[in-house]
Hints:
- The protein is of the alpha+beta class.
- The protein has a domain at 1-67.
- Helix content is 36%, strand content 23%.
- The chain is built from 6 helices and 5 strands; from the N terminus they run αβββαααββαα.
- Strands 1-2-3 form a 3-stranded antiparallel beta sheet. A two-stranded antiparallel sheet has the order 4-5.
- Residues 69-78 and 159-163 have low confidence and may be disordered.
Amino acid sequence: MIKGNLAIRDSAANGEQLHLFEQTRKGFVQYLGEFSYLDHHEERAPDLAGDLRKVFVFELEVITKEFDFTPVSPTSSDKSERGKFWNLPLHRLRDLARAVSSKEQTPPERKRMVYERSEAVRIYVLRRANGKCEGCEQKAPFNNSKGQPYLEPHHITRIADEGPDHPEWVAALCPNCHRRVHFGVDRKSYNELVAEKIRLIESNQASGYTS
């Protein structure tokens, strides 16, 4: 654990920022966003010559993101346990989606919260949408293999204060609207329109829970 590895592990303690890039093809990279260190583990993996060696695998929590993606993957046991999220009352699911990890938590505790929050947000926005795109407000174009309306969670903006997966900044969009907010000629204005719709929806949700 030296040089770059050590810098990643101790980045928070040293007040350093972590910015992640992914190689898209030889000579080109794509910026993914800013992250914070959660934990790491060791694995055996091939090097450039194909020989196995010990590697550190860093587990990171996203702070800001440029594109919609899942930075870490839960274990299969985590997935089965979080299947219960589909059956939770919507207001309880919303509370889980708004949870914020604490620096006082141990790395395993923070990892678990990151996993749970990410999954809770995904399921919450899909249930909140109730089968309709939160952009064009049309029914989902088809059902997935589980028979559920197919919509895609979209992160409206980068946000560090309350977490990028805060439900007020995630919309459930049909594939067409999701591509529009990323690649359409009106992507900026359409994204702002979606953001305004979600703010109104979340305001009504909060009012409904407190009334």
